[in-house]
Structures are given as C-alpha cells and as structure tokens.
Amino acid sequence: MLKDEPKQANMSKYIGRRVLTSVAIVLVILIAMATGLIEPNPRPY
Fold first, then answer.
1. What's the pTM value of the predicted model, to 2 decimals?
2. What CA–CA distance (Å, rounded) separates 14 from 44?
3. In tens digits, what is the pLDDT along the chain, a chain of 45 residues?
4. Is 36 exposed, middle or buried (0-12, 13-18, 19+ CB in 10 A)?
C-alpha cells in the first residue's frame, strides 16, 4: 500500500536497533544477577 521503500528500511533498522539494545540490557541484568552484583526481590509468599 505504501510505496516509500526507504522509509520502511529506516523503520526496520530502528526496530532492529531497539530489539538489540533490549536484548543487551536483559543479558547485562541476567549476568549481574548470576554473579551476585544485584539481588532480585524476595517472593512475597
């Protein structure tokens, strides 16, 4: 429907960048939890 191909390429680039940064942040948090740098909250039950 939309004929702007360069616009779609730019949007997919930005979405890919956001996904990669989100994955990197989650990995850093998981590594920090595994090494003991941060502790998760205790379960309430």
1. 0.64
2. 38
3. 555 555 556 788 889 999 999 999 999 999 999 999 999 888 887
4. exposed
